[in-house]
Amino acid sequence: MADLLSIGISGLLAHRQALNTTSHNIANVNTEGYTRQRVEFDTRTPEGSGAGFVGTGVDITTVRRIVDELNTTRLQADASAYQRLDVFADFASRVDQLLSDADAGLSQPLQGFFDAASDLAQNPTSEAARANLIGTADTLASRFGELQAQLDVMDDEINQRIGMTVDDINRYTESIAKLNDEIALQQGQFGGQPANDLLDQRDQLVRELAGQIGIKTTTQSDGTLSVFTATGQALVLGKQNMELSVGEDAYGSGRVDILYGGNSRITDQVSGGALGGLLDVRREAIDPARSRLGRLAVGIGEAFNAQHMAGMDSYGDLGGEFFSVPSGTALAAVDNSGSATIDVGFGNVSALTGDDYDLSFDGTAWSLNNRSTGTSVALSGSGTAADPLRADGFELVVSGAASAGDRFLIQPTAHAASDLSVAITDPARVAAASPLRAEADLGNTGSAKLSQPTVTDASNPDLQTPVTISFTGANSYQINGSGSYTWSAGTPISVNGWQMSITGTPAAGDQFSVGPGTVDSGDNGNARALAQLGQQSLFDGGRSSIRQEQAGLVSQAGLNAQQSALRRDAQGAVQAQNLARRESVSGVNLDEEAADLVRYQQAYQAAAQVIQVANELFQTLLSATR
């Protein structure tokens, strides 16, 4: 009876624990991150006899979580990828809406500006047309500044969100480290049995941490979990967590860097999660939009100024700068030891890439690297005002003395859009007329005809000096009665900073005169050239016009928004599939738990019946021996 009683008690205790575990599952059916548990039974060591081995009952070996570790790892990766894409898609959509909006974007003011230039070409002496051109230019410059300001606001928001995300990461790693300590303690106290509910809590925290930053995890022999960033920096080791922090970037630009251990910058090594998404959207959406917007502003300002200075205003003066064109930005690294400062100007606008650059000095020479491509960029020049360093359409003038190891962040166009402004206010200063006028002598006998002279160098002091071109034959001419120059059809004649084309066939003795234009003559030569600038190929090495560049800016932002939204939705579908797979394995199924409840209840009752039988047998034995 003693053995029978012991067997019954073992069954009673085992199935009571099974009932408790099943009830625990049911109670946590709606607990986020809970993994259903199952009691594992095992037979006790049987007793041997001459008649064979006789069972001695049942033991519980463990209460095990029903979990697929591979799926758990996939869910961590899913959380990291989805949150990164979600953050990126949100900001990319905002950039797209900002640049493509019909009322807030560049399309309307840019169209209005060139429409005003066309109106001026039709009415070159109209003061109203001149004033309208200045007004639409001011509207265009203001819109550039407004768009830059909105992008800067997004950049500041990213800074703030990086700080808040780093705080969240630190809270998660601190909680994981505390759970590691509790898990190791409890599992050590109970012979290595898993602390299931604490493990669930830790897994849930790890998934939430993965949503903030890309991580890798390793389970240690004592049950603790080590957590590392995707590039290997330890975030949690046992019961200790290593905190991240934020600090000003290496160039004092106003942006924040992510610091590890208080001073090691790991911004470029962070990937995945909301934090990786914030850094990616800064690099891949905000920076390109700001730089390309600035490149467009610089291109419009430089091109319009060049053409405006090739014209003549209502006072008979050559045109001055129409726009005040901003300069680029050069930021010195905070740890530079030299006194060098750098001014960034523009040379060949068509060569501007819209990228940022790292400039460094090795003690002897300067070197330049494109931040977007990571490639080295060839530099020419010495860095003086007379011979600046030149690369990719911009120029660098170095002042002061640089020391070996000094570094600079070169941003030719990243902030340029905010500083574009109109340089003139007097409508009479709009240079609508050509400064030159060409005439053919009435006594010419050949069939040659002149084109309107175009200015190639407005700074030439003899630009408006009268010139007479006399042909001494069909293929030769003199200038002001001296010299002998060869001419062929299709070859322009260039003198004193202007050039002129002649079509047809000149005859010996034919003369053509070029002199200064007449004030308020109704000449619209320069106004027509200004109106046509929108269609001229000014960017990407002469492959893209101002209008195409503006359209490209909008389409690139739209493409970023569309592709990031599609990737996010696709990743969301993958995450949902893996979550469903987890629920099918680890989730609580109430029907299954109800069936287990009945099964364990019946087993418990049967074990109780065994104890009752043992008691009755014992009472029978006592009665027989009284």
SSE diagram, text form:
Elements: H1 2-27, E1 37-43, E2 47-49, E3 52-54, E4 58-65, H2 69-100, H3 107-122, H4 127-189, H5 196-210, E5 215-219, E6 225-229, E7 234-237, E8 240-241, E9 244-248, E10 256-260, E11 264-265, H6 273-308, E12 323-324, E13 329-332, E14 341-346, E15 357-361, E16 366-370, E17 376-377, E18 389-391, E19 394-399, E20 407-411, E21 421-422, E22 436-440, E23 449-450, E24 454-455, E25 467-473, E26 476-479, E27 482-486, E28 493-495, E29 498-500, E30 502-503, E31 511-516, H7 525-531, E32 537-539, E33 544-545, H8 546-586, H9 590-624
Antiparallel strand pairs: 1-4, 2-3, 5-6, 6-7, 7-8, 9-10, 10-11, 12-21, 13-20, 14-19, 15-16, 15-20, 16-17, 18-19, 22-31, 23-30, 24-29, 25-26, 25-31, 26-27, 28-29, 32-33
Description:
The strands form eleven sheets. This protein has a five-stranded antiparallel sheet with strand order 13-20-15-16-17, with no helix packed on it. A five-stranded antiparallel sheet has the order 22-31-25-26-27, with no helix packed on it. The protein contains nine helices and 33 strands. Among the domains are: 2-66 and 587-624, no CATH class; 71-284 and 544-580, no CATH class; 436-516, no CATH class. Helix 4 (127-189) runs antiparallel to helix 6 (273-308). It is elongated, with a radius of gyration of 40 Å. With 626 residues, the protein is an alpha+beta fold.
What is the overall pLDDT average? 92
Total number of strands: 33
Biggest sheet strand line-up = 13-20-15-16-17
The major beta sheet can be summarized as: 5 strands, antiparallel
- Report the sheet-strand fraction: 15-25%
Structural class: alpha+beta
C-alpha-based Rg, rounded? 40 Å
Spans of at least 5 consecutive residues whose pLDDT stays below 50 are none
Helix content: 40-55%
Shape: elongated
CA-to-CA gap between the ends? 18 Å
